[in-house]
Specification:
- The strands form three sheets. Strands 1, 4, 5, 6, 7, 8, 9, 10, 11, 12 and 15 form an eleven-stranded antiparallel sheet that branches. A two-stranded antiparallel ribbon has the order 2-3. The protein has a two-stranded antiparallel ribbon with strand order 13-14.
- β13 and β14 form a beta hairpin.
- The termini are far apart.
- It is built from one helix and 15 strands, in the order βββαββββββββββββ.
- The chain is mainly beta.
- The protein has one domain.
Length: 252
């Protein structure tokens, strides 16, 4: 479901709050500044990548015992981008952007009994869905809006691209390590020319390694994750998001 309407609104502040079901996440704030400031040629289309920044916090390197598991993440976002910065999205270049989103990310995890290189093999699958609203003071070079338009607003409640992952986890004493590959499958609901899309409409792969040191006596957890996201071109807009490096850490 989608509707379009005229709107008025602009802000010079940049902000972002991302909340998982169990903990607050702020990593996306700095990452949004980075990808937008990197230049339109390689910036993330829509100001975000398919890898959810802040998603790997405490116990990031832990792989559970063989079995089937369910994980649910609820992601909230609200941010503004001043008119002096431009953002590529949906085949448009927009300025004076205000956005908000509420996205549910259910994930099914299967840790198999199989071992590879001494580690436990596992798989996961996610299907994001939810609400997103994007407004812009100005849209440029938009086929949908006839080249230029002011006061544009678009919102949607729909399905995003499915995500599939495979990983291997090792445990040595109190040290847990997990390496894996997360793949974005571009079959979600995507509308060319619209400002608000949850689907990214391009193939992508994220390669990551996470480690956690957990003291079972005190409960102290030191966790960190590094990874690299590789993005293919969006065939609807002929835009290719640049490759992205991410690093996260948590102490709890």
């Amino acid at each position: 479901m989608r509707r379009d309407r005229d709107t008025i609104g602009a802000s010079d502040s940049v902000g972002n709050i991302s909340m998982r079901t169990s903990r607050l996440k702020l990593a996306a704030f700095a990452a949004t500044l980075f990808v937008v400031g990197a230049g339109c040629s390689y910036a993330a289309e829509g100001g975000a990548g398919f890898y959810l920044l802040g998603s790997k916090g405490p116990a990031a390197g832990v792989t559970p015992p063989p079995g089937t598991y369910f994980q649910n993440d609820l992601y909230f976002y609200k941010g503004d981008l001043g008119g002096n910065r431009q953002l590529p999205t949906g085949g448009n270049v927009i300025a004076g952007v205000t956005g908000k989103a509420a996205i549910e990310i259910p994930t099914f995890i299967w840790v198999t009994p199989a071992e590879i290189l001494g580690g436990q093999l596992g798989f996961s699958a996610s299907l994001p869905f939810g609400y997103k609203d994007v407004s812009a003071d100005l849209a440029i070079s938009s086929p949908r809006f006839g080249g230029r338009s002011r006061g544009i607003d678009d919102d949607v409640f729909t399905l995003g691209d499915p995500l599939a992952s495979s990983f291997i986890g090792w445990t040595t004493g109190d040290l847990h390590i997990q390496s894996g590959v997360l793949v974005n499958i571009p079959i979600g609901d995507y509308q060319d020319g619209e400002l608000a899309n949850i689907a990214f409409h391009h193939w992508g792969a994220d390669i990551y390694t996470a480690a956690s040191y957990i003291d079972p006596t005190t409960g102290l957890d030191f966790s960190g994750t590094i990874g690299m996201t590789f993005n293919a071109e969006n065939p609807a807009t002929n835009y290719r998001t640049g490759d992205e490096f991410h690093a996260e850490w948590a102490i709890s």
